[in-house]
Amino acid sequence: MKAAVWHGVKDIRVEDVELKPLKSDEVVAKVAWAGICGSDLHEYVEGPVFILVDKVDELTGGQAPLTMGHEFSGVVEAVGENVTDVKIGDHVTVNPTVTRERWSDDLNVYDGYSFIGLSCDGGFTTFVNVPAHNIYHLPSEFPLKLAATIEPTAVAVQAIKEGSLKFGDTTAIFGAGPIGCLVTAAAKAAGARKIIVCDLSESRLNKAIEMGATDVINSGQVDAVKEIRKLVPNGVDVSFEVAGVQPTFIQAIHATKPRGTMVVVSIFARPIEFNPMLLTNSGVKVTSTIAYSRQTFKQTVDLVTQHKIEVAPIITKEIALDDIVEEGFETLINDKKQAKILVELSGE
Prior knowledge:
The chain is α/β, with parallel strands linked by helices. The chain is built from ten helices and 18 strands. It has helices spanning about 40-45, 145, 150-160, 180-190, 200-210, 225-230, 245-255, 275-280, 295-305, 325-335, and strands spanning about 1-10, 10-15, 25-35, 65, 70-80, 90-95, 95-100, 115, 125-130, 135, 170-175, 195-200, 215-220, 235-240, 255-265, 285-290, 315-320, 340-345. Strands 3, 5, 6, 9, 10, 17 and 18 form a seven-stranded mixed sheet that branches. Strand 15 (about 255-265), helix 8 (about 275-280) and strand 16 form a beta-alpha-beta unit. Helix 3 (about 150-160) crosses helix 4 (about 180-190), helix 3 (about 150-160) packs across helix 9 and helix 4 packs parallel to helix 5 (about 200-210).
């Protein structure tokens, strides 16, 4: 079967691979659709970030070269002998996080912390082995195409939780890429009354409006913080940094009300500098998130399949596996109108 295999920076190859033997606690998923994530793009452009090249992952046993893809949905093709709660034919999505599970999610969701598709073989292929523990059932009538967006939506839902965003709150979101737009949709679902999204791209800002933004600001044309303060004079209750660069990190702090919360959601490609007195003089609290708890993932499955968070607008392109480099990764680098690009596998 074909798979998109990461070998190194700018070196992803669609090549023939063998499905590994099925373990007793795993299922085989026939992949329907898989999304290209921002973290996949980081691996392509500047990796290895999460992928291991000089040692084996202690939890998954994975090591490059490996099949990428951690946002995917599909149909169960086979089950291991010890699997009792998943059956052949089930429509499923996959929580790709793998941890030691020595702690409950509310205490430590990062214990060990590996990813299917980044620390072991993932979903950019026809069939993939997945621990049954990571499988989440879907209503059979729910489109598997939309289900491929559940994983990044879970990132957004966890970000809303980390910021303790409440019904009626105000928020500013810096960055209108796929995760920023999904944070926008999640903020809307959480009942935010004012959702201000800042970005340099007009097309991305238009997408943010489609996802639920009440106001958008082109931060390349105006002072974003001043414009936010015109809309919310005392500053927003919660801000989200989803761009991963120093200017937006600073702006997000300045846009937040005294003793409000700024949530870092993005992956930073390089270190930044800031003066901690920005926090000391305002009381703004900074927290961060990169993934989600198992509870959050299950809640996101329900939110998406019940259409309480609408994910369809985030999908901007569908491609074949053979075209994943040029039409997928390279397009995401060069075309800022793109949000979520899905790779069609079985297409069910």
